[in-house]
Amino acid sequence: MALETAYIQEKLSQKFGNNVLNFEMKRDVFSFEATSDFTHEVIQFLKEQPDLNFHFLTDLCGVHFPDNDENHQFEVVYLLHNWIENTRIRVRTFLPASNPEIQTITDLFLTANWMERETFDFFGITFKGHPQLKRILNMDEMESHPLRKEFPLEDQGRTDKDDRFFGRIPTTTL
């Protein structure tokens, strides 16, 4: 018997009630949202439930939505895979801009270690309980997080660039 999305939704809704919501098929992957307080428990349930069997964490990443309301500016996306049934699932959770933090899942998936560090490094999302949460690619002295939308795309102080080579011609020469 193939693992049906309706069955997954039913199991999650029975166990977590209103803490799991917005179930949908998105780009051929079953997707839903979990409240940030229950994300760890939801992922643990998906992994440890014998009939669900999502034992592989494919990816974990962050997203910044600066135009969303205060409580939905940051998103953490978890992609899980059930190899037995060849079924993928996407778990999404939103975090507030004032305090973007969520519980680590390194106790469930060791591979989450570097993925959480990278998400922290580029988005500034804190993973509570992470064994070594520090920057992984950027310098420790760096104060900003480069994948946040407020991060400047170019260094305005550069003197070695010529706008003509970037397709930008100053209006004074036209």
UniProtKB/TrEMBL annotation:
It is found in: Cell membrane. Keywords: Cell membrane, Membrane, NAD, Quinone, Translocase, Transport. NDH-1 is composed of 14 different subunits. Subunits NuoB, C, D, E, F, and G constitute the peripheral sector of the complex. InterPro entries: NADH_DH_suC (IPR010218), NADH_quin_OxRdtase_su_C/D-like (IPR037232), NADH_UbQ_OxRdtase_30kDa_su (IPR001268), NADH_UbQ_OxRdtase_CS (IPR020396). Residues 35-155 form the NADH:ubiquinone oxidoreductase 30kDa subunit domain. This is NADH-quinone oxidoreductase subunit C. It is a peripheral membrane protein. Its EC number is 7.1.1.-. The gene is nuoC. GO terms for molecular function: NADH dehydrogenase (quinone) (non-electrogenic) activity; NADH dehydrogenase (ubiquinone) activity; quinone binding. GO terms for cellular component: plasma membrane. Its main location: membrane. NDH-1 shuttles electrons from NADH, via FMN and iron-sulfur (Fe-S) centers, to quinones in the respiratory chain. The immediate electron acceptor for the enzyme in this species is believed to be a menaquinone. Couples the redox reaction to proton translocation (for every two electrons transferred, four hydrogen ions are translocated across the cytoplasmic membrane), and thus conserves the redox energy in a proton gradient. Pfam families: Complex1_30kDa. It catalyses: a quinone + NADH + 5 H(+)(in) = a quinol + NAD(+) + 4 H(+)(out). It is an enzyme of class 7 (translocase). Belongs to the complex I 30 kDa subunit family. SUPFAM superfamilies: Nqo5-like (SSF143243). It comes from the Bacteria.
